[in-house]
Design brief:
The protein is an alpha+beta fold. A hairpin with a 2-residue loop joins strand 8 (about 230-240) and strand 9. It folds into 2 domains: about 5-65 and about 185-305, DD-peptidase/beta-lactamase superfamily (Beta-lactamase, 3-Layer(aba) Sandwich); about 70-155, no CATH class. Helix 4 (about 120-130) packs across helix 5 (about 135-140). It has helices spanning about 5-15, 25-40, 75-85, 120-130, 135-140, 145-155, 170-175, 185-195, 200-210, 275-290; strands at about 45-50, 55-60, 65, 95, 115-120, 160-165, 180, 230-240, 240-250, 255-260. The longest helix is centred in the last third of the chain and has 17 residues, at about 275-290. The strands form 3 sheets. The protein has a 5-stranded antiparallel β-sheet with strand order 2-1-10-9-8, sandwiched between helices. The chain contains 10 helices and 10 strands.
Length: about 300
């Protein structure tokens, strides 16, 4: 067994329940285990964890700037719903897809026939659920472009999370970070604000929660959390960055975590990519730490479906 994996398993076995120790002790235990896990990772790692019930918080490079990749689609949805609430868009209005909107890849929307009709709500669903890039760029345009999304983020109190792509004045940031930029703390707190009904409005927050609860991409962090446990999540991946933000409605209280990497040496796309493995390992460590009375391991053969 590789020494790093062995160390991780030993640390996991020692993690105490988050319900029986102080937040400070919880944080120290988690931080020690996480530092051991990311030691030797070929790239930079940012981690933010907050247990909303017992107050445990761990922040490791949590305020450093990282690429969002597809996690930027969370604020795209928020700004889109703001226009719906303002009466400038109808969530169920009929749109016409044209082939000039195609973003090359495996998107479902990109397989539509030229001139095909589709409801705005379904375009938003594809953006979040399957992370459809063609749908996402369309939603960004309908939300008022990246500049409008960034104004919305500022209004919600997020100072560092921004859209870069197709946004005047953000060209340098796009070259460095790609589509969007954020911090692990801000991305985690976006989901907390959503959970508490503070993101745009209680109604918009609830619709966002419903969207983020229907995620197709469940082979990383979500794969090590019991399937009956409700989660809100969004994933992101580009060659040199892998990321995931998850809010877990756990038996002993909700917790949120965000893990983002950048400058990864491993740019492969298999499930054994170092970044993907890290996402799964951190999610498993947190579940075992906060929910020791509810052990979970995936059944043999489930990997066929990932």
């Amino acid at each position: 067994m590789p020494s790093r994996l062995w160390l991780t398993l030993v640390l996991l076995s020692l993690l105490p329940c988050g319900c029986t120790t102080t937040p400070e002790a919880n944080a120290a235990t988690l931080q020690s285990a996480l530092r051991a896990r990311i030691d030797g990772f070929r790239g930079s790692v940012g981690i933010y964890i907050r247990h909303l019930g017992n107050g445990t918080e761990v922040a490791m490079a949590a305020d450093e700037l990282f690429p969002t990749a597809s996690m930027i689609k969370v604020p795209l949805l928020g700004a889109l719903l703001a226009k719906v609430e303002a009466g400038r868009l109808d969530y169920h209005q009929e749109l016409t897809y044209t082939k000039d909107r195609l973003y090359a890849g495996e998107d479902l929307l990109g397989s539509f026939a030229d001139g095909q009709k589709v409801q705005l709500a379904k375009v938003a669903m594809l953006m979040i659920t399957t992370s459809d890039n063609t749908a996402s760029l369309w939603c960004q345009e309908l939300a008022g472009t990246g500049s409008a999304v960034n104004t919305w983020l500022e209004q919600q109190g997020f100072a560092k999370t921004r859209v870069n792509s197709r946004t005047p004045g953000r060209e340098a940031a796009q070259r460095e970070f790609g589509w969007g930029v954020t911090t692990p703390r801000e991305m985690g707190e976006l989901l907390v604000a959503m959970r508490e009904g503070r993101l745009q409005s209680p109604a918009a927050s609830e619709e966002m929660r419903r969207c983020l609860a229907r995620i197709y991409w469940d082979a990383e962090a979500l794969s090590v959390i019991p399937p009956e446990v409700h989660t809100l999540s969004k994933q992101g991946a580009v060659n040199r960055s892998r990321s995931e933000v998850v809010l877990v409605h756990a038996p002993h209280g909700d917790y949120v975590f965000c893990v983002i990497t950048k400058d990864q040496k491993d740019t492969s796309w298999g499930r054994d990519n170092e970044g993907f493995v890290l996402l799964r390992d951190v999610a498993a460590m947190l579940w075992r730490h906060f929910e020791p009375d509810h052990p979970y391991s995936s059944p043999p053969g489930l990997e066929r479906f990932w």
